[in-house]
Amino acid sequence: MIEVRFHGRGGQGAKIASRILGRSGFLSGLYVQDFALFGAERRGAPVVSFTRLSAESIDQRGHIERPNLVVVMDHSLLKEASGQVFYGVQDGTSIIVNAEADQLQAKPNDFPKAKYFFLDLSAIARRLTGGVIVSATAAAVAAKCIPAITLTTLVEAVGAEISQFGLPPEVIANNIAAAREAYERTPVVNLSVPPAAERITETTLETPPYLASSRFAGPTIRHPGSAALRETGNWRTEQPVIELAKCKRCFLCYLYCPEAAMTLDPENFLHVDYDHCKGCMICYEESDRCDQPKVRGVTCLARC
Q: Does some domain include residue 170?
């Protein structure tokens, strides 16, 4: 059995990637499972999806804790959510990262021992689909690592899954082209079999994967004021920009920001704390209610 974990962000298509891979395996005559764990169910939040493929019936259920293959769809997760990405990773685990090696925010020397491969899936998606959703390309690089899955069955699976969203034929064709290129550019990766997991006897409580060690039943806050230490700026898919020349200092964006990511300078002008701004764009919408509604003080800059 081959177990694959996809790590991405809400809106990147991690769930669809696992579905495409699962359908590819099914069309190739394999038994498959695919499912997702959303966590904070919102755009930009870290999410994980799972796919199991086997020549025999699959009797396992639950999260994949010791994957044969990990696909990282957003390389910033290597720094922001490293505990999730590297959970259960062994020396022989293959990890495919959506980036060129020189694009990484985190230092590769700090990563656990594993077999790393780098390919800029986002660049392929932007060039061939005009968007930033990498579900088809992420599924393609995983499919290349599974000998039973051919390019023909992958193309059929991409077409079947993408067509369920009612998209125009040209969009489906563009996603197929992106998947085809990612498949062809992915090197042949031999997936190792992870060693059997050791039996945990420290507690009888069920530990949610990725959230806690076996000693705790869930997340534990060790000290007060920890929210400021959690940088969530990488969640953004859009970025607000304050134009100080137009700002009337009505403070509406300051009052309505749900993350308290607006700061005031000595002259009471607003500035965005991009380390914590999640790009909800409430400030952009509220700027229309300023005393001069035809002049927005906040503009929207697409992050990708």
A: yes
